[in-house]
């Protein structure tokens, strides 16, 4: 916590933003609700005021990078996604023409699931991933771009030895597909998201809505004059900003509420997406792809107690560290957690996977949860009952979504031709 009660001198850039909100909060119309006040405050602050991300996290990936290179870069910089630069764009290209999309770990998982399907000898074997076609993209990639609703995709049996053995990952990581497929070849498919950026004059409110309701993991901010990315704002950076605002009146007023008062967790216990400890680890990544989530709990086979968490970025351990899986004929979720922890300890690497499950209860305050998420550098926290049974999950997105709301018609034509609107959008 960087601000003490009554302090007027912030000791961090994030706390400085919090003070701006505090000043604006105090002059809002008294008839406004607390939520409306926060909306008005964040609409008044330009996104250019958000503290710059560490240079290690402002990473751009060239369109001629291979999948193998992308995985290595994302893992090395501990980021979930990065903008893709078109290497064929002229030097004087505008930022709209320079960036062709965002590559995410989630997209790489989908491509890997395709390969496991092919190696499993399922019906999709008839498809060649890159067959000759009018646009150079094969039917399997086209299916991926359409959300993978094909019955052929659903024919993947993750419990099969082929799909879950060390041999599969060893074959995949040495394959031409993994080493030679370029990001630019599959731009627009899988989860290669469109390049949707903010300009420095856009507001905090716009940025917060993109990171919550519109499900973006990170938001690039471009400098139109320089025609390049000036900053990349992640959900984690927003949570850190909130943590630095502890002690300020507006934050304490909002953050002192219990999760149950705010309608959190959003999901009923019976709807929690989970994988059992004796299921193949590939099933965990498949569920993340199907359900559009970034991580799921690993649950003991005899009940509702979580023994660990696997996130979308953990696929890196199957791709970059063959020693993790070489002993396993079939890599079960429990095996995976144990092997990765041993690997991390041996290599003295810090990771959320080394920590015990981070939990809270429905009576925890939002402030408590924010402090835990920020200090542990994690993206989700699990809600448990008095016996330790899972009752729900709270993500960074859930918290940001409780900070602001979208005014009617707020985005206008902002998304036209760029991003599909969520089903519940009022725009």
Helix content: 25-40%
Residue fraction in strands = 5-15%
What is the count of structural domains? 3
Q: What is the multimeric organization of the chains shown?
A: single chain
Give the total of beta strands: 12
CATH architecture designation of the largest domain: Roll
Radius of gyration: 22 Å
CATH superfamily of the largest domain: CBS-domain
Averaged pLDDT: 79
CATH topology of the largest domain: CBS-domain
Counting DSSP H or I runs of 4 or more residues, the number of helices is 18
> According to CATH, what is the class of the largest domain?
Alpha Beta
Structural class: alpha/beta
Low-confidence stretches: 1-7, 121-163, 420-427
Shape: globular
Order of helices and strands: HHEHEHEHHHHHHEHEEHHEHEEHHEHEEH
CA distance, first residue to last residue = 37 Å
Q: Can you give a write-up of this model?
A:
The protein has 427 residues and is an alpha/beta fold. It has 3 domains: 13-52 and 196-255, CBS-domain; 56-131 and 138-186, CBS domain Like; 259-401, CBS-domain (Roll), CATH 3.10.580.10. 36% of the residues lie in helices and 13% in strands.
């Amino acid at each position: 916590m960087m601000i003490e009660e009554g302090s007027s001198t912030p000791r961090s850039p994030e706390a400085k933003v919090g003070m701006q909100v505090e000043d604006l909060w105090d002059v809002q119309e008294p008839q406004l609700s607390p939520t409306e006040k926060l909306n008005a405050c964040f609409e008044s602050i330009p996104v250019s005021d958000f503290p710059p991300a560490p240079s290690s996290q402002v990473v751009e990936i060239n369109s001629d990078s291979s999948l193998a290179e992308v995985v290595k870069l994302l893992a090395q910089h501990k980021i979930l996604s990065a903008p893709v630069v078109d290497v064929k764009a002229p030097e004087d290209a505008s930022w709209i023409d320079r960036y062709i999309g965002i590559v995410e770990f989630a997209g790489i998982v989908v491509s890997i699931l395709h390969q496991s399907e092919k190696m499993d000898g399922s019906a999709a074997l008839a498809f060649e991933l890159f067959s000759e076609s009018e646009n150079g993209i094969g039917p399997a990639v086209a299916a991926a771009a359409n959300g993978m609703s094909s019955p052929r995709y659903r024919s993947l049996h993750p419990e099969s030895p082929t799909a879950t053995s060390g041999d599969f990952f060893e074959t995949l990581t040495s394959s031409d597909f993994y080493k030679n497929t370029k990001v630019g070849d599959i731009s627009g498919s899988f989860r290669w998201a469109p390049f949707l950026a903010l300009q420095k004059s856009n507001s905090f409110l716009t940025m917060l809505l993109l990171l919550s309701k519109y499900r973006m993991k990170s938001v690039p901010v471009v400098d139109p004059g320089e025609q390049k990315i000036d900053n990349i704002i992640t959900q984690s950076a927003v949570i850190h900003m909130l943590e630095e605002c502890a002690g300020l009146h507006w934050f304490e007023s909002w953050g002192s509420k219990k999760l149950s008062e705010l309608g959190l967790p959003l999901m009923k216990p019976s709807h929690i997406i989970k994988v059992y400890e004796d299921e193949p680890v590939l099933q965990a990544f498949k569920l993340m792809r199907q359900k559009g989530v970034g991580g799921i709990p690993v649950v003991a086979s005899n009940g509702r107690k979580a023994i660990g968490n696997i996130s979308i970025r953990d696929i890196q351990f199957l791709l970059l560290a063959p020693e993790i899986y070489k002993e396993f004929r079939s890599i079960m979720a429990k095996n995976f957690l144990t092997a990765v922890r041993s690997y991390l300890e041996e290599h003295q690497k810090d990771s959320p996977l080394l920590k015990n499950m981070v939990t809270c209860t429905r009576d925890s305050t939002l402030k408590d949860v924010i402090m835990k998420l920020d200090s542990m550098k994690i993206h989700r926290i699990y809600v448990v009952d008095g016996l330790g049974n899972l009752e729900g999950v709270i993500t960074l997105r859930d918290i940001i979504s409780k900070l602001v709301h979208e005014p009617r018609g707020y985005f206008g034509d902002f998304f036209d031709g760029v991003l599909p609107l969520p089903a519940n959008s009022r725009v």
